[in-house]
Amino acid sequence: MIYQLVMNGFITGGIYALIAIGFALTYRTTRFFHFAHGAVYTFGAYFAYLFTIQLGIIRIIAFPIACVATAVLGILLEFGIYRPMRKRNATDLTLLIASLGLYVVLQNIISMAWGDDTKTMCTGEVVEGHLFLGARITDVQIIIIVSSIVLIALMALMLTQMKFGKSLRALANDPELARLSGINSDRYILYAFAIGSFLAAVASIMISFDTDMTPTMGFNALLMGVTAVIVGGVDSLPGAALGGLLIGLAQNLGVAVLPSQWQDTIAFGILILFLLFRPYGILGRKPQRSFI
Question: Total structural domains in the chain?
Answer without folding.
Answer: 1
